[in-house]
Amino acid sequence: MLQLTGITKSYGGHRVLDEVAFAIPEGRLTGFVGGNGAGKTTTMRIMLGVLSRDSGEVTLDGVPITDGDRRSFGYMPEERGLYPKMQVLEQIVYLARLHGFSRADATTRATALLEELGLGERLRDNVETLSLGNQQRAQIAAALVHDPRVLILDEPFSGLDPLAVDVVAGVLKTRAARGVAVLFSSHQLDVVERLCDDLVIIAGGTIRAAGSRDGLRAGFSQRRLELVLGGDAGWLRTEPGVEVVELDGGYAIFDADSDETVQRVLRRAMSTGDVTSFTPRHPSLAQIFKEVIQ
Amino acid sequence: MNTQSFIQSVWLVTGREIGSKLRSKAFLISTGILFALALIGVIWAGVAADSDSRTPVAVTPETAAVVAQLDDVVETTEVASVAEARDLVSSGEVDAALVPGGADPFGYTLISEDSVPTTLVSLLSVSPEAELLTTDTVGEQLRYFIAIAFGAVFFIAALTFGSTIASSVVEEKQTRVVELLISAISTRALLAGKVLGNTILAMGQILGIAAIAMIGLAVTDQGELLGGIGAPIGWFAVFFLFGFILLAALYAAAGATVSRQEDIGSTTMPLTILVMAPYFLVIFFNDNPAVMTLMSYIPFSAPVGMPVRIFVEEAQWWEPFLSLVILLASCVVAIFVSAKIYQNSILRMGARVKLAEALKS
């Protein structure tokens, strides 16, 4: 497990990260969500040692990470970066060798990976001649070629069409299933919601929420319920402890102040008529996000 | 990161720098042109030396004996009569004619077209013996030529590869590939690899030019020049090697402070001046021992100043070694300062990073 504790970073008196702490467990996909300038990229760069931190610690299984550990990390920077005038295969081989692989090993791995990503026909082409989507695939190959223990991906889905999103999501899931700790940031909350197991929300340089996706959703549901009745549900408005969010004939969405209120409402609903549906409503990630960063 | 993987990383970066350069058509063409120029220069010098520079003079049987001793500077054409000699002068086939007659002590007259051929006159004159207390070991002109040659080669090679390293640093920064690189290897390994790669390329070019010059001199029978110039060329190579490492490190640091290729010119300007200064200094001061001595100890101009002083035999045997130690020391300082600037600037996109900020820890 990769663990961040008390990470702080300032640029010329402006504190961009304040006591950032969260964990990235192995075998799970952790989504990293935050607005522009919230500190996602800075956090990732510090984890990779690309950027220095003012204070705090990054540990891997409880031990502060070394440069050697970092070489077993895979990284995809937000601003994509490959040499435009270098051949795709050569480039990925070069990066694998920088991570410590022999030339032969690096070539075998790079070829296999690029073929898996659908770039088998383009191995000898210069990166600049590839379409944006294919450059993105090459970029993913660059992050994966050395079989990293930890994958850190900054906006891996931005600029991808829905099909490519699925390809990349598939690759990440496979890696996580093999026991890799995966952290990825994204603006596309729907993608994060669909894909991630765990979630970290950052705003203004501080972590606002962190934990499993389902746990967070449950924690933020605040007893919001959806009720569908045979008759009119207008009586909800006068029920104590209930705040109606939406009401349309027999359909209502409401917030309850306590579990007793929920039970009382259910009993009254059943006594007034047929209850077609009475379900807790989990908020979407977008709703949680809005609420958390306020 | 341990030493072994550091060295490995440095070599990988070095290899990529060299490989990508060797595949660049622009680089191959410019190197080809440079080599061709060196070859043409040597051949031209050989042809010029070979061609007959003797003064053509017409003589009659009576005056032939007068110039018989001047065979190496005078090319004689013997004619039968004075009239024939005059004709050759006016047709321009000879520069002058020696005809019998005229006042003592000579007993002959020099005829020429419209000006007195002073060289010939002085050769034929009787002069008193002159004794010089100090002798110039090397001709003025040769000293000038050698000084400019060293100055120009240093300035062209340093400028070419200095800009190359600066633009390759900016390319990595601009394409953000640097972020990937330094997530795998240390900034220091990356910087060292780039400096080393470009130094090898620059040295290769320099050695190529030197080889062409030497082979060319030998082939065109100018071998005697080689004896005097061998040691200075050797020292030049050594000084160039470390002088270039010094400059390359500084160029890399300068490149790291900007984010766009367009900004390289302004950020490397001070370095460009440093590189060009020795060239202009040797042009103007190659005969001024004080300036040349100073130049031969300042790290940026030592690669030009010291070999020139060695060539004209003004330097004591220990001087190049002392100067080399100074150069090595400044190399170490430059590498540390550059590594710091590089490290602090390489991820900062946008506006040019101020030097004071780049030097902060």
From TrEMBL, chain A:
Residue stretches making up the ABC transporter domain: 2-229
GO cellular component terms given for this protein: plasma membrane
GO biological process: response to antibiotic
Topology class, membrane: Peripheral membrane protein
Gene3D superfamilies the UniProt entry points to: P-loop containing nucleotide triphosphate hydrolases
Annotated InterPro entries: AAA+_ATPase, ABC_transporter-like_ATP-bd, ABC_transporter-like_CS, ABC_transporter_ATP-binding, DrrA1/2-like_C, P-loop_NTPase
Subcellular location(s) of the protein: Cell membrane
MF (Gene Ontology): ATP binding; ATP hydrolysis activity
A Pfam family reported for this protein in Swiss-Prot or TrEMBL: ABC_tran
This protein's UniProt keywords: Antibiotic resistance, ATP-binding, Nucleotide-binding, Transport
Coiled-coil regions listed: none
PROSITE patterns for this protein: ABC_TRANSPORTER_1, ABC_TRANSPORTER_2
PANTHER family: ABC TRANSPORTER ATP-BINDING PROTEIN, ABC TRANSPORTER ATP-BINDING PROTEIN NATA
Family listed: Belongs to the ABC transporter superfamily.
Protein name in UniProt: ATP-binding cassette domain-containing protein
TrEMBL record, chain B:
Boundaries of every ABC-2 type transporter transmembrane domain copy: 25-339
Topology within the bilayer: Multi-pass membrane protein
Pfam families: ABC2_membrane_3
UniProt subcellular location: Cell membrane
Keyword Hydrolase in annotation: no
Transmembrane spans: 26-47, 144-166, 195-219, 225-252, 264-285, 321-342
InterPro entries, per the entry: ABC-2_transporter_component (IPR051449), ABC2_TM (IPR013525)
Domain of life (superkingdom): Bacteria
GO molecular function, one term: ABC-type transporter activity
Protein name: ABC transporter permease
